[in-house]
Design brief:
transmembrane helix, Immunoglobulin-like, beta-catenin binding, Catenin-bd_sf
Length: 803
């Protein structure tokens, strides 16, 4: 079994000697690196450790210039039995960083291939193997540890520069300011990393403000502290220190750095007013405006709480003024927060004091607070009149008498000038106001039911104006109290009462309507006058209703009952009303039956049947009389004598009802608003006789024939078609021919006067149209009267040329 061997040193200690070529060599054996037998199980010079053999670390100096350098040689006991090949693995060989070490596979000598850097790798752990030529492992691997020894090859450095610190002014010696640190990457267990600090220069800002050394530094810890007194921020603002650090306790490599120390301010100066007296002007009746500013000086650091000021007013007992600090200028801003009254006080003398936000420092001497006086002159101005209350509250009965004083002394003027009053809003014109005194009086009675009264409050407005024209307006809120102005009225005034059944089920429910409002209305009291209460009684149901009931069974008929109702007003008002009650027989639903049904079910049913028979007979006689009158009128219509006028004779029927057939109707309707006159005469028949035109039609009776102004006179008339065609398809041609002939006939009257007619059938009761008589004379006619008939006859008048 393979074991690890430990080399026996000359001093019998368990240490490993490193062979160095720099040491003198006296024998051939010492010319070779130390030989280890890690796999030898027994032999002279071996120390047995429980369970295993331990090989001490091999120490190698960093930055060695002997490259390659033999470090150690290992051997296996198997060399006595055969050939052994040595292999090496681990960090620095086949692991990063690679190629730092190698082993001679024949001799087992381990050597370094490159200079080592302890700051990168301070130790290496390798494994050595003894193998046969065939690669078979002859022994268990042996661990070899290599330690890299440090050399002072790195300077100490300050990790950041400059260092910045702060110290309060007037600090005592020994006051800690700050601590600076430096680092050295050399082995901290050696002198190579032992650092020492020092200050090698001091500079004040402003330059040469202080020349003595004000700061010291602990050479081991780097703590900077004050060494002397006299730090005054008003004299020196900061210091710049040049620092040095050295390793090997101050004897090795060095580096430099910078430390900046600011001298911080303490509140060792009180603010001072400059100047300490001010005069300012204020305008009365205005507020929230700047009155003026006061100035202070402070030698402390600007912008800090040791410099910022806080102001106070010590004698503003009414709180009319306020003062605050301008954050930029540090001035005191004096403002008016309550309106000033010139008439009450025209001048104010304010006493102001000031202090810093931070309290005075204990290091400062006793400070004296500064104060200033501000004189405020109030400027008078014309003030608006003022109402003594807003809104003006008035409480009055709605039935107040006109002229009653409602309110007086409603306003005053601060400047004691004369005032003028007026009503600016009064939608119901209920109020009046004295122009000089402002006394408000009732102009007429109020009405609670006005749409301008909301929740019993009537709202108006009054205006007051002073001598300078400055005015003010106030609302007048008049609370109206209800009075008993209207008596209640019984409702309903008609109804029915069922006869028979229980008394509790028959009766007429009455109520009352009162235009007054509570408490001048309900509850109502219903009564029947004593002299009328023989057959009827009235019972109160609740505050607003009562039941009217008969005391005895009454006949089926109408009754008039007088009912009196009273309200609860003060004084109470009452009214009487006649209630018409019908006593009837009711059905199961308490609805009054029909009159016939009620009567038939009573003892008077036979008399009622007789009455119905008489009424029916009378209606039949009237119907027969109407039929006789109609027949007589019809007979007169069918017996009109021949030659009598259809329009002015016995018949009042319109002649147009008797026209059966139309042939042609002239050349068209030019005046659409004129009367549509039916057939009058045919140009081929005899001329129409006087009176053959319609009375009131706008067409004059025949005197001299009216002539058309748009056609020549005394020309022959064209031939008109006489009979309609038998074939209905020729109707269109027949009508067109008739229109063409009428349009070119110069002898026909103007448009809308004469229409062409043709055969009207046999047996006409009207007789021949050509024989219609006219009630007019044959004298000349004056057609100017057509102009008086309106616009629709004006065109017709222009178409006639009387001769």
């Amino acid at each position: 079994m393979a074991v690890r061997m430990l080399m026996v040193c000359a001093l019998a200690t368990l240490v490993c000697r490193v062979w160095s070529s720099a040491e003198p060599h006296h024998s051939e054996e010492e010319l070779h690196p130390q030989v280890l037998h890690p796999w030898r199980s027994r032999g002279k010079g071996l120390i047995r450790v429980k369970r295993d053999w331990i090989i001490p670390p091999i120490r190698v100096s960093e930055n060695s210039k002997q490259i390659p350098e033999d470090l150690v040689q290992i051997k296996s006991d198997k060399i006595f039995t055969g050939e052994v090949i040595y292999k090496l693995e681990g960090q620095g060989v086949d692991q990063e960083p690679k190629n730092l070490f190698e082993i001679d596979d024949k001799t087992g000598v381990i050597r370094s291939k490159q200079p080592l850097d302890r700051e990168k790798y301070s130790n290496f752990t390798l494994k050595a193997f003894a193998l046969s030529p065939s690669g078979e492992r002859l022994e268990n691997p042996t661990t070899i540890e290599i330690l890299v020894l440090d050399q002072n090859d790195n300077r100490p450095v300050f990790p950041h520069s400059p260092f910045v610190g702060t110290v309060s002014e007037f600090s005592v010696p020994g006051t800690s300011v700050m601590t600076v640190t430096a680092t050295d990457v050399d082995d901290p267990m050696t002198e190579n990393a032992v650092l020492s600090y020092s200050i090698i220069d001091q500079e004040s800002i402003p330059p040469n403000a202080i020349t003595k050394i004000m700061f010291g530094i602990n050479n081991k810890t780097g703590a900077i502290y004050t060494r002397d007194v006299g730090l005054d921020r008003e004299v020196v603002k900061e210091f710049r220190l040049k620092l040095q650090v050295a390793d090997m306790g101050g004897m090795g490599l060095t580096s430099e750095g910078v430390a900046i120390i600011h001298v911080s301010d303490i509140n060792n100066h009180a603010p001072q007013f400059s100047p300490d007296s001010y005069n300012m002007t204020a305008v009365e009746n205005r507020n929230d405006y700047e009155l003026g500013r006061v100035n202070v000086t402070d030698r402390d650091d600007t912008g800090t709480k040791n410099w910022k000021a806080r102001y106070f007013i010590s004698n503003d007992y009414r709180g009319n003024f306020a003062v605050h600090t301008d954050p930029i200028t540090n001035q005191g801003v004096l403002t008016v927060v309550k309106p000033l009254d010139y008439e009450a006080q025209s001048e104010y003398r304010l006493l102001l004091s000031v202090e810093n936000l931070n309290p005075p420092s204990s290091k400062a001497s006793r400070l004296t607070l500064s104060s200033a006086t501000v004189t405020v002159i109030v400027v008078n101005e014309n003030e608006a009149p003022r109402f003594r209350e807003e809104p003006i509250q008035i409480e009055v009965l709605e039935s107040v008498k006109p002229g009653t004083l409602l309110k007086n002394n409603i306003a005053f003027d601060p400047d004691n000038s004369d005032l003028r009053y007026e009503i600016s809003r009064d939608p119901e014109s209920w109020l009046d106001i004295n122009r000089d005194t402002g006394d408000i009086t009732a102009k007429r009675k109020f009405n609670m039911r006005s749409p301008h009264v909301k929740n019993s409050i009537y709202t108006a407005a009054v205006k007051v104006i002073d001598a300078g024209g400055v005015s003010a307006t106030a609302t007048v809120a008049i609370t109206l109290k209800e009075t008993n102005d209207f008596p209640p009225q019984v409702f309903p005034l008609t109804g029915f009462v069922c006869r028979g059944g229980s008394r509790s089920r028959k009766g007429l429910l009455l109520t009352a309507v009162d235009e007054d409002l509570p408490p001048q209305a309900a509850p109502f009291l219903f009564q029947i006058p004593d002299d009328l209460s023989a057959n009827w009684t009235i019972t109160q149901v609740n505050d607003t209703h009562a039941m009217l009931q008969p005391l005895v069974d009454l006949e089926f008929r109408d009754y008039a009952v007088m009912v009196q109702v009273s309200d609860s007003g003060s004084p109470a008002l009452s009214a009487e009303a006649q209630v018409n009650v019908t006593v009837c027989l009711c059905d199961s639903f308490r609805d009054c039956k029909s009159e016939a049904g009620a009567i038939l079910g009573s003892s008077v049913g036979i008399n009622f049947i007789a009455l119905i028979i008489i009424a029916a007979s009378t209606a039949l006689l009237l119907l027969l009389l109407l039929l006789a009158v109609a027949v007589t009128a019809c007979g007169r219509r069918h017996h009109i004598k021949k030659g009598t006028g259809l329009l002015i004779g016995e018949s009042e029927d319109d002649i147009r009802d008797n026209v059966f057939n139309y042939d042609e109707q002239g050349g068209g309707e030019e005046d659409e608003n004129a009367f549509n006159i039916d057939l009058l005469w045919n140009p081929h028949d005899a001329p129409p006789t006087p009176g053959s035109f319609y009375p009131g039609s706008g067409i004059p009776p025949r005197g001299k024939q009216p002539l058309r102004k748009d056609a020549p006179h005394n020309l022959p008339s064209p031939t008109y078609p006489r009979r309609p065609p038998a074939d209905p398809t020729d109707i269109e041609d027949y009508i067109n021919d008739g229109l063409e002939a009428a349009d070119h006939d110069p002898n026909v009257p103007p448009y809308d006067t004469a229409l062409i007619y043709d055969y009207e059938g046999d047996g006409s009761l009207a007789g021949s149209l050509s024989s219609i008589a006219s009630g007019s004379s044959d004298g000349d006619q004056d057609y100017d009267y057509l102009n008086d008939w309106g616009p629709r006859f004006k065109k017709l008048a222009n178409m006639y040329d009387p001769r």
